[in-house]
Specification:
single chain; about 350 residues; 13-stranded mixed beta sheet; 24 strands; elongated
């Protein structure tokens, strides 16, 4: 039986653990200067359960943008070592250390011990080395963001960091509650069939794999049951557009930009009736623009720029009544501009 006195002891332990964690950090902006007083639940960035006052949330995301006009805003960074004293926050459900500078250290393996954790955001935080497979222990995790600076982020870094995953990626498939996964900028490698491992996650909604050096086998059987956003921008994938994409009927956002996709745009693209945004630009797609694009009645943005598409613009484009941005530039299109484009009364940007 847990007594009131033991609760007080546990809360005091959590408070001391936070103070120990703070000692290991450099805080030029004095963001944690208000971490004073007995009630740690009132400290900025600290959230507690109302019922038992245990610390359940630690939100230390940099309050200002990590990048301002492509220049790092370092004055708001937290820097230093992440103390293992955080392990005493046994009820932690939310941890955000993003937009800081924890360079020259690995993601702590003990993060995999927070058995109640549902949200983990380490994006743009400067961690390097190998992503620890112990993160696979976080069976309640719903949101995981490890996004990393990559070759498409035009910004000067005062330190050199790289983050990668090992060949053994089975830990990802253990995150059975995951809804959001972003590992953009992390080196995965094109020798791993990562899509198959991720596709077993039953509740996954968002998958961001931009600039990860991954590859796709068009023959791989993928069954994303609920995915609504897929981003594989900038991986130089050399393949035809995978057939399994046409099965993702709940997909709202699709970004295949800056790869080496070739061949025709399949007619089955018209099956993705929930699409709001599709970007197939900067690939090597050829053939005509399929008239089935006119079936994408929810579409607001479409970009097919910088491919090798030929033929005329289909009249069915005029059926996209919600379209706001249309980009077909830098292709080999010919013929006349269909009058049906005049039906696109919500169109704000047009580039042919």
């Amino acid at each position: 039986m847990i007594t009131a006195s033991s609760d007080v002891t546990n809360i005091q332990t959590e408070r001391q653990s936070l103070l120990q964690f703070r000692k290991g950090l450099t805080d030029e902006a004095n963001r944690q200067s208000i971490w004073t007083g007995v009630e740690c639940c009132e400290w900025k960035g600290v959230g507690c359960d109302r019922r038992n006052t245990h610390v359940v949330k630690l939100d230390l995301r940099s309050p200002l943008s990590f990048m301002d006009d492509n220049t790092l805003n370092t004055s708001n960074w937290l820097e230093g070592k992440v103390s293992p004293s955080l392990l005493n926050l046994k009820h932690l459900r939310y941890l955000d250390l993003s937009m800081n500078n924890f360079s020259r250290q690995n993601i702590p393996e003990f993060f995999g011990s927070f058995k109640y954790l549902e949200y983990l955001n380490l994006s743009y935080s400067g961690f390097s080395g190998v992503v620890p497979p112990y993160l696979g222990n976080l069976s309640r995790l719903k949101y995981l963001d490890l996004k990393h600076l990559n070759r498409y982020d035009i910004v000067f870094l005062p330190y050199d960091v790289s983050l990668m995953v090992k060949d053994d990626l089975r830990w990802v498939s253990l995150l059975s509650s995951l809804k959001h996964l972003d590992v953009s900028g992390i080196t995965i490698g094109n020798h791993i069939d990562w899509f198959y491992l991720v596709s077993v996650l039953p509740f996954l909604l968002t998958l961001n794999l931009a600039s990860c050096d991954i590859n796709i086998s068009p023959k791989t059987l993928i069954n994303f049951t609920s995915l609504d956003s897929l981003n594989i921008y900038g991986n130089y994938i050399s393949s035809t557009i995978p057939v399994w994409l046409s099965n993702l009927t709940d997909l709202v956002n699709l970004n295949l930009k800056d790869n080496n996709f070739h061949g025709r745009i399949p007619d089955s693209i018209g099956n993705l009736s929930s699409l709001s945004s599709i970007d197939l630009s900067f690939n090597h797609l050829s053939g005509g623009i399929p008239s089935s694009l006119g079936d994408l009645s929810s579409l607001r943005v479409i970009s097919l720029c910088s491919n090798q598409l030929s033929g005329s613009i289909p009249k069915s484009i005029g059926l996209l009544m919600r379209l706001q941005e249309l980009f077909f530039c830098y292709n080999n299109l010919s013929g006349s501009i269909p009058g049906s484009i005049g039906l696109l009364t919500r169109l704000q940007e047009l580039d042919l």
